[in-house]
Amino acid sequence: MHKQLAQEIVENEAGQLFIEGDWHPNPLPTNIELEEMAYPDTSYSFTTFYSKKPVGFKLGYASGNYGHGIFTTGENGEINIGKFVVLQCTRIISNLSVIIKDHCMFSWGSVITDSWLGLETKSPAARKAMLKQAAHSYNRHLEFIDPQPVTIEENVWVGFEAIILPGVTIGKGAVIGCKAVVSQDVSPYAVVVGNPARVIKYLDPTDTEQEKEAALRLFIN
């Protein structure tokens, strides 16, 4: 791997890639993409990563996975994380698509999922079929019915143990309070709290292109 990462990646004789000094000695999946200065943390984060997509996971420039966050995917799941994103003990579950754009921060225990038990799985027969499928799969992964994509726009902050549910789009600059459960779209620059999440205020935009360029100049220098 020629890219300069925040961790050293080594290759064994079989062509498998490992994180140098990783406490969990498994190889990284072959279908993940790590941009320069990315910090994947540990291969343990991918123990339930079953995506068969050409690129099932992407960690953008200078983004980091800290505290052994877990990335769980089904065969068709994709997780795409932008630049300068902080994931702190974050659980991401994807059977379709989870997109996190640049400059987002996720606190301890936050969960993002594009899959849930909804009306289509309410009947005992439907749940029995799902459990039977999982029991006969080699990895015991439960493939959910009708996953809905999740998109988190730029500069979103998510508090600890907040949960973002399937089909949600969170607008640019929004703040999700601690332990909030978000099941509906969130407008840009909204602050939401509670279960179900509700808007308590709106923020004035301070993340203009000019402000971002000034902040990046300070970071680079």
Automatic annotation (TrEMBL):
<keyword id="KW-0028">Amino-acid biosynthesis</keyword>
<dbReference type="InterPro" id="IPR001451">
    <property type="entry name" value="Hexapep"/>
</dbReference>
<dbReference type="Pfam" id="PF00132">
    <property type="entry name" value="Hexapep"/>
</dbReference>
<dbReference type="InterPro" id="IPR011004">
    <property type="entry name" value="Trimer_LpxA-like_sf"/>
</dbReference>
<keyword id="KW-0220">Diaminopimelate biosynthesis</keyword>
<dbReference type="InterPro" id="IPR018357">
    <property type="entry name" value="Hexapep_transf_CS"/>
</dbReference>
<keyword id="KW-0012">Acyltransferase</keyword>
<comment type="similarity">
    <text>Belongs to the transferase hexapeptide repeat family.</text>
</comment>
<dbReference type="GO" id="GO:0016746">
    <property type="term" value="F:acyltransferase activity"/>
</dbReference>
<protein>
    <recommendedName>
        <fullName>Acyltransferase</fullName>
    </recommendedName>
</protein>
<dbReference type="GO" id="GO:0019877">
    <property type="term" value="P:diaminopimelate biosynthetic process"/>
</dbReference>
<keyword id="KW-0808">Transferase</keyword>
<dbReference type="GO" id="GO:0009085">
    <property type="term" value="P:lysine biosynthetic process"/>
</dbReference>
<keyword id="KW-0457">Lysine biosynthesis</keyword>
<dbReference type="InterPro" id="IPR050179">
    <property type="entry name" value="Trans_hexapeptide_repeat"/>
</dbReference>
<keyword id="KW-0677">Repeat</keyword>
